[in-house]
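Table S2 (text version). Query chain:
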Amino acid sequence: MTHEYQAFLLRLERDVDQQRWRILLQDVQSGEVRRFVGKRELLGYLFGILNQPDMVDSAESDPAQSPQQPRS
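Corresponding structure-token output:
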């Protein structure tokens, strides 16, 4: 069984006199920061990540080829 994990830090900022939010999404692992103009762009990016095909090595997809590790 493979496990994939992605963690993000979402920052929403705006000045008191402004209506628009500044949206920043930081990848916790790489530190990469992406800026978005609006919530549709942010959600489109996140859905794009969720819709990517699984990147599974062929040996991992066949349990007979990859031995199970005991869980502690």
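Notes on Table S2: DSSP finds two helices and three strands in the chain. The two ends are 15 Å apart (CA to CA).
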